[in-house]
Task: inverse folding
C-alpha cells in the first residue's frame, strides 16, 4: 500500500489515502481481513467524495469479462470493467449499453453503486433496471448472490448504495439490441424555460432526450435551451451502407489545469451564445455517431482541468414533476442571478424511480458545473433548502458538500438504508468520506 | 496458431503479458499456483480475443512435479516465459533457513528445473523461444538483498549458458532484467519514479524482445548504465557501501 493524494473528477476534495489495487477476488477478502476500513474505488469519475476515504482499494484491474451471450445480449463481468471496454466488445456484435451516463469511462461497479441514469431514463429507467444479478462480498466476508427476487434487500440497497453494502464482485446485466452505431437525432431550439419544459412532454416518445440550458441568460430569454432527442438509427436510415461502428473520433486533451481567470462570466456567456446561436433553424435533424451523441465530453480528455486546480462542483438535483416547473424556475433564477459560470447545465425529465435509495424520481433534474469560490458552499446550502422544500433531492454521486441533515430529510428511505448498513456491516469496514460526511455509517 | 506458456501467471507482469499476447492472437497456457484464480482471465481473453487459453496448476518449488506438468500439456508451447519470482524477507532469511531456501528455490532452482524440461523439448523440435525474467539485482550482491540477488545472478548465468547451447538448434533465449516494477510486490516501498516501470511496459518490452530475438534486455534503459557503474566499483570500496 502506498499513501497518495487522491481526488475525483472535479478535483475537490483532495484526500490523502492508503491506496492498493485488487487483481483477484481474494484481494478484497485480504483487504477486509487486514484493513480496519476502506472503500472500493473505480475510475474516479464521480464528482465528490464517494470513492475517497482514509483507505481505498482500486477495482480497475479487477476487470474481466466472465461471459457474454451474444444471442440474448447478457453480459457478466467483474466490477472494475469500464463501460468503454464493454462497448468495444459489444458494439460490433450489435449490442449497446441499456443505460449510459454522459461518460463511458466509468466502471460497472460504479454504475451499480450510483445506479446511474442516462438520456433514456423516462423510457428505460436507471441502470439497476437492467441488472439481472449481482455477486457481493459482504463486509463480514461472505459471498451473496442477489437479484430483484433473491436477497432483494441486498440488491436494492446495493443499487445506488454508494458501495457501502458490500464489495460488488460481479454484475450480470442485459444489453440493448441495436442495428447501427448511429443515432438519428433532432435538436429543437426553445426560446425560454417554459417552452423547453413543454417540449420535454411533447417529445417524450423519443427514447433519448436531454436539454442544454443557458443558465446565465436573464430577462425575456431566461432559460433558453436546446432540446436534443434521439433514436438508434436502423441500417436503412443510414445514408450509405450499414456501418455498425463509426470512425474513431479525434480525441483532444486539456494538458494542464487552466488558471482560474480563464473561466469568467464573460467567457462562459460567449460560449453559451455561440452554442445556442449555431443552431439557425428551430429544428435540426441529423445522424450522429453514438460517441458524439452520448459522450460529447469524452472527446476532450481531462476537460475537468478547464476549471483550474481549485476544482469545481457539479450540482445536480431532482424536483418532483408536479412542482417541477415552478421549482426549476425558482432555483434557476437564483443561479442565474449569481452568474457563476457553468458551461454545462443539463436539464432532463426523469421517469419513475426504481430502487429505494436511488437518486432518480419522476420529475425534472438539473445538473450544472460551478467552479469553487469562497462563497459557493453557503449559496449551495441555500439551494439545498429550496430543493428540500420542493420535495426534491441531491445526487450523491455528484455531491461533495451537502449537509448530513439534508440527505436524511430528502431521501425517504435513508433511515431503513442506515439500519440495513448497520446490520450487514456492524464493524464499519466499508467507509468512504461521503458516508462519514453524510452520517450514513 | 502459436501457443505461449506463461509460468507464474498470477503476477501482474504475467497478466499484462497474457492480455497483450491474447490481443495479438497468441494462444496461452497460464500456469501458476492457485491456478483457479486465473479462470476469470481465461474467460475474458477467450471472449474478447477468441484465443484458446488453458489454465494449469504449477508450483515452481515442487521440482519433482515439473516433468509431469510439462508432459500433460497439449499442445506443447512454442514459446515459454518464466515470470515467477519471490522477493522474500531478506532480514528474516538471514536467521531462517526456510525463508532463505524459498527465495533460492523460487528464483533459481525451480526456474532451472522447469526450463531444463522445456529447453530439451524445444531443442528436439529445433524451434522455440525461451524467456527468463531475471533481475538487475543479480548483477552484484548487496547486503540488503543478496539471497534474492544471488539466485537471480545464478539464473542470469543459467540463461546465458542455455542461449549458448541452444543457438545451434534455432532456439532463442531472452534474458530480461527489470529494475523496479510498479506492482503489488513493492507496494508501499517508495521507488524512484523514473526508474520504475509499469507491468504493461515490461510486458511490451518482453514481447518486442521475443519477436526481435534480442538476447539481454533492460526495461528502463537507464538501468544498463546504473548497473555498469555499480559493477565497476572496486570491491574494496563496494564492501564499505550501504547498499
Result:
Amino acid at each position: 500500500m502506498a499513501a497518495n493524494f487522491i481526488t475525483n473528477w472535479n478535483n475537490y476534495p483532495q484526500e490523502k489515502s492508503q491506496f492498493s489495487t485488487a487483481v483477484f477476488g481474494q484481494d478484497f477478502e485480504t483487504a477486509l481481513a487486514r484493513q480496519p476500513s476502506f472503500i472500493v474505488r473505480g475510475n474516479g469519475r464521480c464528482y465528490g467524495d464517494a470513492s475517497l476515504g482514509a483507505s481505498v482499494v482500486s477495482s480497475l484491474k479487477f476487470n474481466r469479462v466472465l461471459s457474454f451471450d451474444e444471442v440474448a445480449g447478457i453480459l457478466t463481468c467483474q466490477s472494475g470493467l469500464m463501460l468503454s471496454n464493454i462497448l468495444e466488445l459489444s458494439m460490433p456484435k450489435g449490442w449497446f449499453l441499456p443505460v449510459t451516463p454522459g461518460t463511458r469511462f466509468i466502471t460497472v461497479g460504479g454504475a451499480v453503486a450510483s445506479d446511474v441514469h442516462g438520456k433514456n431514463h423516462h423510457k428505460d429507467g436507471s441502470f439497476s433496471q437492467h441488472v439481472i444479478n449481482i455477486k457481493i462480498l459482504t463486509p463480514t466476508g461472505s459471498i451473496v448472490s442477489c437479484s430483484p427476487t433473491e436477497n432483494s434487500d441486498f440488491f436494492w440497497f446495493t443499487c445506488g448504495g454508494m458501495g457501502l453494502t458490500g464489495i460488488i464482485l460481479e454484475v450480470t446485466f442485459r444489453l440493448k439490441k441495436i442495428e447501427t452505431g448511429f443515432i438519428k437525432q433532432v435538436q429543437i431550439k426553445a426560446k425560454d424555460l417554459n417552452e423547453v419544459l413543454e417540449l420535454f412532454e411533447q417529445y417524450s416518445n423519443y427514447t433519448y432526450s436531454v436539454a442544454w440550458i443557458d443558465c446565465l441568460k436573464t430577462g425575456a430569454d431566461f432559460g433558453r435551451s436546446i432540446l436534443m432527442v434521439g433514436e438508434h438509427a436502423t441500417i436503412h436510415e443510414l445514408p450509405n451502407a450499414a456501418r455498425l461502428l463509426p470512425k474513431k473520433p479525434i480525441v483532444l486533451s486539456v494538458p494542464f489545469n487552466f488558471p482560474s481567470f480563464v473561466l469568467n462570466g464573460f467567457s462562459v456567456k460567449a460560449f453559451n451564445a455561440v452554442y445556442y446561436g449555431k443552431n439557425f433553424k428551430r429544428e435540426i435533424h441529423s445522424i450522429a455517431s453514438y460517441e458524439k451523441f452520448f459522450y460529447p465530453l469524452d472527446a476532450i480528455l481531462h476537460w475537468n482541468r478547464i476549471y483550474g486546480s481549485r476544482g469545481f462542483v457539479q450540482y445536480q438535483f431532482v424536483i418532483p414533476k408536479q412542482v417541477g416547473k415552478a421549482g426549476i424556475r425558482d432555483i434557476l433564477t437564483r443561479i442565474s442571478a449569481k452568474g457563476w459560470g457553468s458551461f454545462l447545465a443539463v436539464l432532463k425529465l426523469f421517469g419513475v424511480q426504481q430502487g429505494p435509495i436511488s437518486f432518480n424520481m419522476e420529475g425534472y433534474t438539473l445538473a450544472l458545473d460551478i467552479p469553487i469560490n469562497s462563497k459557493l458552499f453557503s449559496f449551495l446550502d441555500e439551494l439545498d433548502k429550496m430543493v428540500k422544500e420542493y420535495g426534491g433531492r441531491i445526487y450523491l454521486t455528484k455531491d461533495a458538500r451537502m449537509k448530513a441533515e439534508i440527505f436524511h430529510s430528502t431521501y425517504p428511505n435513508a433511515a431503513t438504508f442506515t439500519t440495513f448498513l448497520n446490520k450487514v456491516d456492524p464493524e464499519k469496514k466499508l467507509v468512504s468520506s461521503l458516508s462519514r460526511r453524510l452520517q450514513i455509517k | 496458431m502459436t501457443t505461449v506458456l506463461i509460468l507464474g501467471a498470477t503476477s501482474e507482469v504475467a497478466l499484462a503479458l497474457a492480455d497483450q499476447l491474447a490481443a495479438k492472437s497468441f494462444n496461452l497456457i497460464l500456469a501458476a499456483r492457485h491456478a483457479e484464480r486465473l479462470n476469470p482471465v481465461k474467460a475474458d481473453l477467450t471472449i474478447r480475443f477468441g484465443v484458446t487459453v488453458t489454465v494449469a496448476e504449477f508450483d515452481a518449488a515442487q521440482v519433482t512435479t515439473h516433468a509431469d506438468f510439462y508432459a500433460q500439456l497439449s499442445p506443447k508451447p512454442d514459446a515459454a516465459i518464466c515470470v515467477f519470482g519471490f522477493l522474500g524477507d531478506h532480514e528474516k532469511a538471514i536467521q531462517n533457513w526456510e525463508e532463505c531456501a524459498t527465495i533460492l528455490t523460487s528464483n533459481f532452482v525451480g526456474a532451472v528445473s522447469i526450463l531444463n524440461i522445456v529447453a530439451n523439448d524445444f531443442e528436439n523440435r529445433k524451434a522455440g523461444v525461451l524467456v527468463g525474467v531475471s533481475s538487475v539485482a543479480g548483477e552484484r550482491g548487496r547486503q540488503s538483498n543478496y539471497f534474492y540477488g544471488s539466485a537471480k545472478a545464478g539464473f542470469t548465468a543459467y540463461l546465458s549458458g542455455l542461449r549458448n547451447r541452444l543457438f545451434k538448434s534455432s532456439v532463442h533465449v531472452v534474458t530480461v532484467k527489470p529494475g523496479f516494477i510498479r506492482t503489488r510486490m513493492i507496494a508501499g516501498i517508495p521507488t524512484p519514479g523514473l526508474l520504475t516501470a509499469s507491468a504493461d511496459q515490461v510486458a511490451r518490452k518482453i514481447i518486442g524482445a521475443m519477436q526481435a530475438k534480442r538476447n539481454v534486455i533492460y526495461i528502463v534503459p537507464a538501468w544498463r548504465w546504473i548497473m555498469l557503474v555499480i559493477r565497476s566499483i572496486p570491491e574494496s570500496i563496494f564492501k564499505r557501501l550501504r547498499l
Summary: Residues 97-125 of chain B form the longest helix (29 residues). Chain B has one domain: 3-238. The mean pLDDT of chain B is 93.
